[in-house]
Specification:
Blueprint lengths: L1 H24 L6 H9 L13 H10 L11 H12 L17 E5 L9 H5 L5 E2 L7 E2 L19 E5 L21
Antiparallel strand pairs: 1-4, 2-3
Helix pairs in contact: 2-3
């Protein structure tokens, strides 16, 4: 009994050492530029940029596959921050990917909700709480305002409500200055 216990302890220690060594030896290094770009993006995971989320878009920008002006939720300030980071000229947002809107959150009219779970399946950040055939609700602090839950709702009980600007969520906006060329 004691011998078997000692053998198990030794095996657990050996396995732990092998796993620890493997984690250090085969560590995958991330691209710090991708992380910096991803930190600037709004993390809505909405896919409006043509990529399935903010991290894939950041990877595409870092590799030169995507332009810095494809993120409507980030708007002009996000594009300018990306331009500053990458040392490129700012450019107008690409309207092909949508127009910037005020930050908003989803709100479910709980009296109309039929509990179909289509909104839960569509939410990329798991901000909707509920179960099949039961009313759902949105965890407002987790909602990114991506609007992906609105279209699948068969009873149109989800609306997007703009978040009022307060001191706690206010951000400094880049000044918009038009440069005139001297002839």
């Amino acid at each position: 009994m004691i011998a078997a216990l000692l053998v198990m302890i030794v095996l657990a220690l050996l396995l732990g050492l092998v796993l620890g060594y493997s984690a250090l030896r085969f560590k995958v290094e991330g691209d710090p530029l991708v992380d910096k770009i991803d930190a600037i993006l709004p993390q809505t995971q909405c896919g409006q940029c043509g990529y399935p989320g903010c991290k894939p878009y950041a990877t595409a920008i870092a590799s030169g596959e995507a332009d810095i002006n494809q993120c409507p939720p980030g708007g002009e300030p996000g594009m300018r921050a990306l331009a500053d980071l990458l040392g490129v000229e700012p450019k107008p947002l690409n309207a092909e990917h949508g127009e910037p809107k005020p930050k908003s959150t989803a709100v479910i009219d709980e009296n109309l909700c039929i509990g179909c779970t289509l909104c839960i399946q569509a939410c990329p950040v798991d901000a909707i709480l509920g179960a099949a055939k039961h009313m759902h609700t949105v965890i407002a602090s987790e909602c990114t305002g991506c609007e992906l839950c609105v279209a699948p709702c068969p009873v149109d009980c989800i609306s997007m409500v703009p978040i009022p600007e307060k001191v706690s969520n206010w951000k400094w906006r880049y000044p918009v200055i038009e440069l005139k060329q001297v002839a």
